[in-house]
Amino acid sequence: MPHRAFVGVGSNLGDRTGNVNEAIDKLLALPDTRIVRLSSFYESEPHGDAKTWFVNAALEIETEFKATDFLKQLKKIEEAMGRKRVKGKKWGSRIIDLDILFFDQEIVNSRNLKIPHPRIAERRFVLLPLAEVAPQHSHPVLGQTVSQILATSQDTKRVTLLPPGA
Prior knowledge:
Layout: E1 3-11, H1 16-28, E2 33-38, E3 42-44, E4 54-63, H2 67-80, E5 97-103, E6 108-109, E7 114-115, H3 124-133, H4 146-151, E8 159-161
Antiparallel strand pairs: 1-4, 1-5, 2-4, 3-4, 3-8, 6-7
């Protein structure tokens, strides 16, 4: 039986939209995995050490991979696209970022994987595209839908819808 995953995608280096599209293509190429829904693309003000704005999207995916194996596949895509992780530096610029936001209704709290993503409620750049693909999806810890979380988000960073093809 396939698992239902929700993935956040972001890029703020180089051809940001092209990078997001390339990551989506690589997700489509994974075995036993299909994209159910893809959000619009959004441009978002950076958090943390990043200086340039991001392009973000969210996807609903069906996959036969278990959560830990799916994470390994996402990391392989990031590495293949040139993502370099800098130890001790969080929220910096990146060519691509793929995050598991939800995986079924699982709650995982291991060193390498946290599901649901621990900062969903704090990030409008995640919530806006996620609300497009899964507005009624219930957060297994907070007990609220994505739409409800978005409505009460305290994040004041700017996030704007990009026109198709931008």
